[in-house]
Specification:
heterodimer; A: alpha/beta; 11-stranded mixed β-sheet; B: 90 residues; two-stranded antiparallel sheet; 4% strand
């Protein structure tokens, strides 16, 4: 097997047995990047020199007998997490030259475990989008079919994992931005429970929804990375002071008698027939492993996209007020301070970010606040209650991750509402704050990956991992690699 | 939507072309969002945040913070230890 196709677990085992060295592994990953990056365009910034230096250090530590879970493991980071001294752009012109003076908590934790930073991956500008076409620095392509989008907004991270341009990656998920690209690129993506992982150093988009999570080649790697990045952080008061279990300890437990909720609202007219068929077959497979499928209802599912595009844009309009050309980032000249603000933001933001700032500002503006923002918050309560009610009778909920496989580049860029509706199955999870994973569950006749979403209760990622691992071990979908 | 007014609130200069496109796109998005009115929410509490979190206080102790030079390293305009901006006072 090619070294760049190794999982974290396989690479860890091989390094520990002295079968491969961190330098060899890192060089193999960069060789792969040399070969395919021109086609995939997953990265905004590559940190080769820095990575090879880290790899040499990891090698001497490994030789000296130091054991750390990520020692010598090449990992990619979505370019909206601050890395001290390394450019962090959010794929936006306004942060094109921004060099963070501090390190995000998640990357600090990875550092402490010995990871090697390969580079910063492409995203939709400020994580706003579902196709990675809203980047100011080029479009990432789907490794399974380069005429198609990789999903978004963590499209760079998902494509890099799928193409073997890293061993694993981190993404962020506000409305599906880890799970949808993971599904469309045939890899595993987890959005943890809101509050499980610190957001310190994650450039804010919608603070009540944003959450960082792993994008990996399999379920075990996902659990391994979640072990490392989880936990309360004094720098993020919304991170939960709750114990972090060893998520790998549930892998391999049987799922007999586990109750699997299947919400009828997630099998809708207009969804892709092959996606629906694959997900139905996956549910039967899970049943054959001893779990019990239960039909449930999440009655407010149809309103989730509307709620999201009020709340997320409102929070974004407030969070993005900081880009004013004063403290960091791009500045345009203006005849006075106001003019400088107006022109800086006009020149620094791309179309989708502007559209969302306008929508959010409108929703929060005097006279509309009650009708939009407050109304959306109330419906958010109903959506949250749907999940609470469902979880009284089931252990996890299983749905398709995305209503369609990867669509063609340019297909939805002219119609923002159509683009927003591609997140219809992932958004409710963020609104309710519950955790969910997307794992590969099949391919279309065009050889495009299909994702299965497994949703759990608040802080019960363990049940998700248990079910996901049982299914994964009974299937071979995760072993397929794109031909590049 | 009074797009000029909203753009001013957002401190965002829009071209005429942007105004035209955004107005059209946003009115179809808002029309879609109006489906929330199908639901009666009179007695429903709003959710701002999913976790039952409250204000967190810490001891008021002096701790190291970002050094001035680091805090200013990304400034588009700088004079000594200050951010430089266009003149505000007439």
């Amino acid at each position: 097997m090619e070294l760049y196709n190794l999982s974290i677990y396989e690479a860890r085992t091989a390094i520990d047995k002295d079968e491969i060295s961190p330098v060899e592994l890192t060089e193999a990953v960069f060789k792969r990047i040399e070969d395919v990056e021109q086609t995939v365009k997953a990265y905004v910034t590559l940190t080769k020199e820095h990575a090879l230096k880290q790899a040499k250090e990891a090698e001497s530590l490994a030789k000296a007998g130091v054991k750390k879970p990520l020692l010598g493991i090449p990992i990619a980071i979505k370019d909206n997490m601050c890395t001290e001294g390394i450019k962090t752009t959010c794929s936006s012109k306004i942060l094109k030259n921004f060099i963070p003076p501090y390190e995000s908590t998640v990357t600090q934790k990875l550092k402490e475990q010995g990871y090697i930073l390969i580079g910063k991956t492409n995203l939709d500008e400020f994580a706003m989008g579902s196709s990675t076409e809203n980047s100011a620095f080029g479009h990432t392509r789907n490794p399974w079919d380069i005429s198609r989008i990789p999903g978004g907004s963590s499209g760079g991270s998902a494509a890099a994992v799928s193409a073997g341009e890293c061993i694993a990656a981190l993404g962020s998920d506000t409305g599906g931005s880890i799970r949808q690209p993971a599904a469309l690129c045939g890899v595993v993506g987890l959005k943890p429970t809101y509050g499980r992982v610190s957001r310190y150093g994650l450039v804010a988009f919608a603070s009540s929804l944003d959450q960082i999570g792993p994008i990996t080649k399999n379920v075990r790697d996902s659990a391994m990375l979640l072990n490392i990045i989880s936990g309360h952080d004094m720098y993020d008061s919304t991170s939960a002071p709750i114990a972090v279990p060893d998520f790998t300890s549930v892998l391999g437990r049987d799922i007999k008698k586990m109750k699997i909720g299947v919400p009828k609202e997630y099998f809708i007219e207009g969804m892709d027939k092959e996606v629906e068929a694959s997900v139905r077959i996956a549910i039967r497979k899970i049943e054959s492993l001893g779990a019990i499928p239960v039909e449930i209802s999440l009655p407010h599912t149809g309103h989730a996209v509307a709620v999201y595009y009020i709340l997320a844009t409102s929070e974004a309009s407030s969070n993005l007020a900081r880009y004013d050309g004063v403290k960091y980032g791009f500045r345009a000249e203006g005849k006075d301070l106001l003019d400088m603000y107006m022109k800086t933001r006009a020149g620094g933001f791309g179309a989708e970010v502007k559209r969302r700032i306008i929508l959010g500002t409108y929703a929060l503006s005097s006279g509309y606040y009650e009708a939009y923002y407050k109304k959306a918050q109330q419906v958010r309560t109903l959506i949250k209650q749907d999940f609470e009610k469902a979880f009284e009778t089931v252990d996890v909920i299983v749905t398709p991750t995305s209503p369609t496989p990867a669509f063609k580049a340019g297909e939805k860029t002219e119609d923002p509402l159509q683009m927003y509706l591609s997140d219809i199955f992932t958004i409710s999870v963020n609104l309710a704050g519950v955790p969910a994973i997307s794992i590969p569950c099949g391919f279309t006749s065009n050889n495009l990956p299909i994702g299965l979403q497994i949703i759990g209760k608040h802080f019960d990622e363990e049940s998700i991992f248990k079910a996901a691992y049982a299914y994964e071990q009974a299937t071979d979908w995760h072993k397929r690699k794109p031909k590049l | 939507m009074k797009i000029d007014h909203i753009a001013m609130l957002a401190r965002l200069e829009l071209t005429n072309e942007e105004k035209e496109i955004f107005s059209k796109q946003l009115s179809s998005i808002i029309e879609y969002i109006d489906k929330l009115n199908e639901l009666d929410t009179t007695s429903i509490d709003p959710t701002a945040h999913v976790l039952p979190i409250k204000n967190i206080f810490r001891d008021d102790k002096l701790k190291p913070s970002l050094p001035k030079d680091k805090a200013l390293q990304n400034a588009p305009g700088r004079t000594d230890d200050f951010y430089r901006v266009p003149k505000i006072i007439e």
